[in-house]
Structures are given as structure tokens and as C-alpha cells.
Amino acid sequence: MIESREPAGDCVVTAVGLIAPAGRTSRGLHDRLCRGDPCWRPSPASPPGGAEDVEPAAASIGGFNIKEFLDRRGSKDLSRTSQLACAAAAPLAGGLKDVAPEAIGIVLGTGWGSLPSVVAFEWETCTLPVRQVNPLLFAETVSNAPAGQVSIQFGWSAFNLTVSSGAASGLAAIAEGSDLLSAGRAEVVIAGGADAINFEALRVLRAEGTAASDPGSLPFSRSRSGLIGGEGACLFALESPASARARGAPELARLRGARLRYTPEMDASPAGCPDAVAALLQDLLDGTGLGARDIQLVVASACGSPGGDRAEARAIDAVFGGAPGQPMVVAPKGVLGETWGASGPLAIAAAVESMRARRVPGRPRGFAPDPELPPLDIPSGPREARVRNAVVLARSGAGHLVAVLLSETEDRHAA
């Protein structure tokens, strides 16, 4: 195990921009999670060409048009991941007009990044005459393209960085953004993640047993058999409390701290290394001075993976199960699917909205608990509750682990 890095943390979230199959605002996302309706459509039951010809079940954003968010020439030629990232950034730009563009930085997490653009460009160069190859595709093959496009489109020039660590990418980007903010590299940091559906990759993951062939696969459920693919983007404006007060910006939540670890042996273990996840969670609590009984909500990274979900459930139980009134557990991927770089940020958006609404989403429809897992407090339906502190967890099959701790702000506490 490689020991954790400890970002400085302790900044505030002042704005959220997102786009996902569940909605285009944090309230819309939260409402869909509370309804518990999975966003994906099922695969055909009896494909004429065999199972390998079935398009994998996936949650896509229907009717998406970048022109609704970004009315600039050339935006339609951006990759879908770049378009989603810019769409999520667009609502943030309006609230940052009083901040100099050179004082705003961007950190974007993405699991697939520019890979679909690389494949598309290579395909055209191999199958079309050279004069028919779209030269704009080449610009999108750069690994930092989505983050760079956000920076270009909105003029944010303090820095633009890309973090890529699978499904943990977006949460790791937020931790990195908190570090850069504390180091004084920017006045405001835009941090989060984005990924578009990659059907070619999903077919490979299904063939190796990572992605589910059954659209009924749900996190922590008896029926889980792998992840269901999804897509989306979610970005936050992070700044110091002093900056937020000076600008009169709303303080939606306080980012108390984050912990990151890399555990390369995780993917090789059928049990998914619950001890490593538990150690990360305990390290986060110790570093922020909170105990297990201070946490009301855990937003899990569980995606329907038989081993990965088991590891998370055992880790959550080991850290929080003995506390009086153990925290509620929510698994957003049971509704959103696995959105890779966007998954951790979307989980944060769900936690922040649960704090605001004082209402925690329940189980997705069709959920049947696995009796072999520890008895986590997964609400049977939306539950009215005050969430003062929430832990958000992200993990990748390759061993990347990230956990962040969010708290109510003083203004929200007074409300």
C-alpha cells in the first residue's frame, strides 16, 4: 500500500454546475435519486446477432446540445467529454464575473479522457483518404483537452490540470483543487470531473466481467453483477471562506478534508481489500477531528461490483457500524450508473443537496439487499434528516481510493 497524501482541504463550495441523465441541476439530481428510478434503458432481451451485438445498458443524456450552454463557433466540434465539461462549467461562469479570469483555475478529473477521440481520429486516418480526415479531431486527442477546452471557452487561465485515476478521478481532482487553492495558486478553483459514455470500452469491460450484462445490477444488492455505464459532468467553485464572504457568494458546504491512497493490490483481491478502505476512512476522520458518531451520511462509490461493493460495505461497517446511530448510506450509481470522472463530484452534489433539503435519498427501485453484506443503513425510501457531516468515497478497480468530508456551513447551520 502507498500511504495517503493529505490535501490541505478546509475550503467552501460556493457553486455547483452539472449535467447528467438525472438532471441539469443539483436539485434535479437529488429529486431523481429520491425517486430511485435508474436512468439507464435495458438491453434488448433477445438480440438477433447474439449477446456480443447488444449495446450495453447505459445511462445517457438524451437530447444534449452544447449550443444550449455554449453559443460559440466550433463548440459542436469538441469531443462529447469536452462538451459535457463546458456545459457543467457554463452556469458557474455567470457567478464569477467579479473574479478576474486569470485568478480562476480548473482541475478536471476524467477516467476516459480523450481516448474516444484518439480512437475516432485513428479510425479516420486508417479508413479515409487523408484529405477527408477531420483535422479538428486531432486537437481533441490531447489528454488534457477537456480541461483545456473549459479554460479556453471561459478564459480561466490560472492553471488547467487533468487528473485521471478511473472512477476516483473526479474526487481526486477536487482534492487537488483544494491543495492548489490553499497554496494561493488561484482565488477560485473550478474542480470536478467529466466523462462521456464509451460503448467500445463498455463492451470490453462486459466481456471481462466488470460491466454487467444484466441491467438489474444494483450497488450492494443481491443481484449485482457489475457496473452499468453512464455519463455526465459535475464541477464546483471552491474558494476560501474569506473570499466567499467578500464576494457575497453563498457557502453551500465546507470541504473539511480529503485523503487519497493508492492500493495496487486491491484489483487482485476478490474481496477488494476492505481494510485499505477502512483505514482511509479512519484516517480522514482522525485528520478532521471527528468521530464516527459525528457523521450522518456516507455516499458510497459502490457500482454493482461483487467484490468492490463487498469491500466498501465491510469498510463502512468496520468504521461506522459500532457508532450509536450509524450513518445512512447512499449509493448514487444505483440510479446514475458508473460515470467515472463525474461520479465522485455527482456524489458530492447529492450530499450537498441532502444537507440543504434535509432529505436523504433511499434505495433505487428493484433493490434487494444482499444478506451476506453487513447491515448498512440504506434507507428504504427518502428520509427526512439533518446532515451535518457527510463522507463521500470514491474507488477505482485499479486501487485508487479517495475520501472527502463535507460539513454544513455556519449559515446553513443557523437555518
What does this protein structure show overall?
- By secondary structure, the chain is of the alpha/beta class.
- It has two domains: 7-247, 3-Layer(aba) Sandwich (Peroxisomal Thiolase, Chain A, domain 1), CATH 3.40.47; 253-414, Peroxisomal Thiolase, Chain A, domain 1.
- The chain is 33% helix and 19% strand.
- It has helices at 26-35, 80-94, 115-127, 136-139, 145-154, 169-182, 199-207, 241-247, 274-288, 306-320, 333-336, 343-357, 410-414, and strands spanning 2-5, 11-19, 58-59, 104-109, 160-163, 188-195, 229-230, 232-239, 253-262, 297-299, 328-330, 359-360, 383-384, 389-395, 400-407.
- The strands form three sheets. Strands 1, 2, 4, 5, 6, 8, 9, 10, 11, 14 and 15 form an eleven-stranded mixed sheet that branches. Strands 3-7 form a two-stranded parallel sheet.
- α10 links the parallel β10 and β11.
- α1 (26-35) crosses α12, α2 runs parallel beside α5 (145-154) and α9 packs parallel to α10.
Stated plainly, the CATH topology of the largest domain is called: Peroxisomal Thiolase, Chain A, domain 1
Q: What's the domain count?
A: 2
Major sheet: size, sense and barrel closure? 11 strands, mixed
Termini separation comes to 43 Å
Identify the CATH architecture of the largest domain: 3-Layer(aba) Sandwich
CATH class membership of the largest domain? Alpha Beta
